[in-house]
C-alpha cells in the first residue's frame, strides 16, 4: 500500500506551492486529476500530493506522493462507477466525504513548509468549504467538458416551466444545438444548485479541455450568471503519456500488449475500435447484437469489454479481436496507425482520447452527460455519427440491433456512399488532434493556462 511521502525539494531560494489534489472515487474522475498532479511537478517550485483511498492509490502516478485514507462501503465497493444498480449513490458520496474531508483538513494544517492550495473534483461539493475554513485557495476541477457543463447551466438558469421536446439550448448559448428532453440528466440538474454554490467559493475553475476545442463554451460558462469566476482550460490531462499517431510499431514480443501486436498486422486506418468505458454498461442481449453488428460490418474490429462478460473470451482472427475482462491501453490503441474509427459511449475521457488521436467516433451514449457530448461531437464538431437516435427513455433502454450497428460502422469508416462524408470527418478530427498536441506543448494554450493558474495561486500567498 502506498503512503504519504516527502514532497520534492524546491530549487534553492524558490518558494514552493503545495497543491493538494482530491479526486472523486471513480476511475474516470481519478485519472485526469492524477495526471494534473503529475504534470505540475516539473519546475521545482510546485509540488503535488493526492488524497485518496487504497483502491485508487494503486492507480496514482509513481512520481506523486499519496496520502492513503481508509474507505469502507457496504459490499466492499471502492469505485463509484462499479456500484451495482441497487447501491445507494448518496450513501457512497457521504462515505467519500467522511473519508476524504478530515484527511484534507489534516493535510492542509500539517503543512508548514510552504503555501498550499486545493484542487478537487467538481462533484466534491464540500471541498471548497474545507479549503476556506483552513484559509487556503481552492480550484474546482471539472472532469467533463465545458460544452456539457455550460449546456447544463444554460438549461438550469433559463429553463421554462416545461421544456419542449425537442428544444434548442436556451440562454444565448454560443451555438444553436437541439436536444431532446431525455438527453438532459435530470438527477444532475437537480443537484446543480448545490455544486454551483460550492463552486462560488472557489478561486478558479479548471476544465480538462483546451482552447481550440471549447473556448466559446468555457467563456459562456464563465459569464452566463454574471459572476467574476476565473475559468482555465488546462487539458487534455490524460493518464497515458503518448498520444502521437505513428507508423512505428514499437516494442515487440512479450512486453508488448497482444492488442497492439494484433493491430500491428492491420492496414492503416482499417480497424474500428469499440469500447464503452471502464464499466461497459451493456446488457447481455446488447453485447450479442453489438458483436454480430461488428462482424456484419465487414470492417476489421477491436472490441474491448473491460468487465468480465459471460461467454466472452480474448480471441483474435484476421477479421477481429475481442478482449474481455481486462484493462486495455486505450490511448495507445487510438494512436495506433491501424485504427480508423471508435464506437464509444461518449464519456469525456474517451472523447479526449479520440480527439487527441485524430479518430472519428460512432456515438452511443448511455447515461450522465454523455448525450450532451454526443451532440457536441455530431452537431457542433461534426466528427461523429450517431449509432441510434434517442428521442425518449424507451430508446435508451432498447436493444440496438446488429444491422443498425453495422450501418453505423459503415458510415463511420466510409464504406460506399458515405465515403466523402467520412473523409471530411477524418480531416476535421485530425485538425483537432493537432490542436490538442499544440495546446499541451510548451507555450501552448493549456500549458500557458496552467502556468497562469499556478502563478495566481502563488500570488495569493504573496509569492512571485
**Helix content estimate:** 40-55%
Q: What Rg do the Cα atoms give?
A: 22 Å
* Main β-sheet description: 7 strands, parallel
Strand content: 5-15%
Query: Tell me, what's the shape?
Result: globular
Count the DSSP helices: 16
**Order of neighbouring strands in the sheet with most strands:** 3-2-1-4-5-8-9
Taking the alpha carbons of the first and last residues, their distance comes to 37 Å
- Class computed from helices, strands and strand pairing: alpha/beta
| Mean model confidence by pLDDT | 89
Contiguous runs where pLDDT drops below 50 for at least 5 residues: 3-13, 240-254
Total beta strand runs: 16
Description:
By secondary structure, the protein is of the alpha/beta class. The protein contains 16 helices and 16 strands. A 7-stranded parallel sheet has the order 3-2-1-4-5-8-9, with helices on both faces. A 7-stranded mixed sheet has the order 12-13-11-10-14-15-16, with helices on both faces. A two-stranded antiparallel ribbon has the order 6-7. The longest helix is centred in the N-terminal third of the chain and has 22 residues, at 89-110. Residues 3-13 and 240-254 have low confidence and may be disordered.
